[in-house]
Recover the amino acids of this structure.
């Protein structure tokens, strides 16, 4: 039987929590007992997520943070520890999609934007999260990669490169900290019902549905279920894994 309070007493940290996967996962952590720090670029964007956590009977700490800015990330982690005393679970989910273009036509500024947010942002978050988890004696990190992290995407080289790299970062960190009671894994979504998918398809969601072997888009809550499993004791022997939750899209 599922223990619906798996995270009572735990402190969770979720980036990109204003919408989509981040929002669904933050709410799910709260519903199962965690106190949740929710991060996105502005506090205003986090209002709906914070309200949903409160309705679920949870407690949210709202933090404005641009993960591409290292000083903001350091301050955010420090604030969580100052408020709650520790950091048990980090879900590094913040990310952006690229402007579709073949490789030779990608502007350098666009390449840097994708890498700064998706890859460098994940690294910087991990750097500060891991330091805290070492100090306190353990923790769990889950990073959002993508089905695009294990296959090519025509017109999406910068995004695919960032998501491939997140898997390498995840696996390496898992080895670095395995003996320090810290697990590090990655979740690989496919085509999800999120604002990002709306933007990427120009509103033509059927294009994304047609790519899914199961014949529908995935719901953010289905990714949240996987993240919570990886973060809970049920996943205690899983580290360095890159788990596809994509309806078969990446096969």
């Amino acid at each position: 039987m599922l223990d619906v309070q798996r995270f009572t007493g735990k402190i969770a940290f979720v980036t990109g929590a204003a919408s989509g996967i981040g929002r669904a996962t933050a709410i799910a952590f709260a519903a199962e007992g965690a106190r949740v720090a929710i991060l996105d670029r502005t506090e205003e964007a986090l209002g709906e997520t914070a309200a949903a956590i409160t309705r679920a009977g949870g407690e949210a700490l709202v933090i404005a943070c641009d993960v591409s800015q290292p000083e903001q990330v350091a301050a955010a982690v420090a604030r969580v520890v100052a408020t709650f005393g520790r950091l048990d679970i980090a879900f590094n989910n913040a990310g952006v999609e690229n402007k579709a273009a073949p490789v030779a036509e990608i502007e350098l500024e666009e390449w840097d934007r994708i890498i700064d947010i998706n890859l460098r942002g994940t690294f910087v978050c991990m750097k500060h999260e891991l330091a805290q988890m070492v100090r306190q004696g353990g923790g769990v990190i889950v990073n959002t990669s993508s089905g695009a992290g294990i296959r090519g995407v025509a017109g999406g080289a910068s995004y695919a490169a960032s998501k491939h790299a997140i898997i390498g970062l995840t696996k390496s960190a898992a080895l670095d900290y395995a003996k320090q009671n810290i697990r590090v894994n990655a979740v690989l979504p496919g085509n999800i019902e999120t604002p990002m998918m709306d933007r990427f398809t120009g509103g033509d969601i059927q294009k994304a549905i047609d790519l899914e072997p199961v014949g529908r888009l995935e719901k953010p809550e289905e990714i949240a279920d996987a993240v919570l499993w990886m973060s809970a004791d049920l996943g205690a022997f899983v580290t360095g894994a890159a788990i596809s939750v994509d309806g078969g899209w990446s096969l």
